[in-house]
Write a structure and sequence with these properties.
By secondary structure, this protein is mainly α. It folds into two domains: 44 residues, no CATH class; 82 residues, no CATH class. It is 45% helix and 8% strand. Helix 4 links the parallel strand 1 and strand 2. The radius of gyration is 23 Å and the shape is elongated. The relative contact order is 0.10. The mean pLDDT is 86.
Length: 143
């Protein structure tokens, strides 16, 4: 019975030692205020990471490894920029998920902001509804 207690004690001490070495990341703690989280994150970022986070690239340039190599902060699908001809919703989801996976693989795990140039609705998705411009909607029943 004594050896079981010793083994349990050793295992417990090992777990505590591992947990004690885990770094507390304030910027990932939702209980912290936004200001504290931002200050902590910016304090950890290198100049290259800060420059990358202020950079937006076009979807066609967001190939595998580019987002993580240059710490890109934002990707835009401009007019006509699609993952494939007649791309389905699933194709768009897969494309963005792969981009996020690449961005999140960095040291700090910062996700990208993804944008779409879609003034008519997301008409790049096969069989999507196309809406009139907002200005057209605004004057539809106006005097």
């Amino acid at each position: 019975m004594g050896s079981v207690h010793k083994a349990t004690f050793v295992l417990l001490m090992f777990c505590l030692a591992v947990l004690g070495r885990a770094e507390y990341l304030k910027y990932k703690d939702p209980k912290q205020s936004i200001g504290v989280r931002i200050k902590d994150l910016l304090g950890r970022m290198t100049l290259a990471e800060k420059i990358g986070q202020m950079t937006q690239i076009e979807r066609e340039n967001a190939t595998t490894g580019v987002l993580s190599k240059y710490f890109i902060g934002s990707v835009l699908s401009g007019g006509g920029s699609v993952p494939s001809s007649k791309a389905s919703v699933a194709a768009w989801q897969s494309m963005v998920n792969e981009m996020q996976k690449d961005a999140m693989s960095t040291r700090l795990g910062i996700p990208i902001i993804y944008g779409i140039d879609a003034v008519h609705g997301h008409n790049n998705v096969y069989k999507a509804t196309v809406f009139p411009h907002n200005v057209g909607l605004g004057v539809f029943q106006g005097p």
